[in-house]
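Quick one: structure tokens for this chain, please?
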Amino acid sequence: MVMQSKKILERMNVVPALIPVDLKANACCGVHIHMDKGKRLLALISFADGSATPGDDIIVHVVQSVDKYGVTEKSLRMIDNGRVYTKEGADQAALDALTKCTKNVIPFPPHSHFYDTGSGTGVGLIEIEIRQEDLDTYNGYEWVSVQLAATANTKIVSMDYCLEDLCYESAPEDLEDPLV
């Protein structure tokens, strides 16, 4: 008997978290995702050079909150989970292999911010995996958002969330909205 495999989009819900935007003087916050709809979230941050300089590196902060508005937020210690990776280069043709990240920014809370020191003048991708068990669900923190700090010069970024291990798998057009 041959098992029929499910479509990728039946096992995952892809949500645009941040449409392409310039970080120049504008900090950005991705939408808040309710982690009761799935067990794992992959945040994919794509970035392009713009007119950024080496000092315009991307600073990422992952927060958990008790509601979709982010009224009560606290940092999520994302570097500790060991699931932060980058792929970057001078241009699309020169992208490096996927690299595990261990860097963080001082003086922010330890391991709650990621500072991509190669992103200032390059292009690439930052991948952050967040699992439901990373959250403080005991105290009502069931929502996640990824925030990006402003840069001094032009830095174009976009971000998508891929929510996987859905609690209720179905046809892509029938998936539950993780924003509510």
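The chain has a mean pLDDT of 78.
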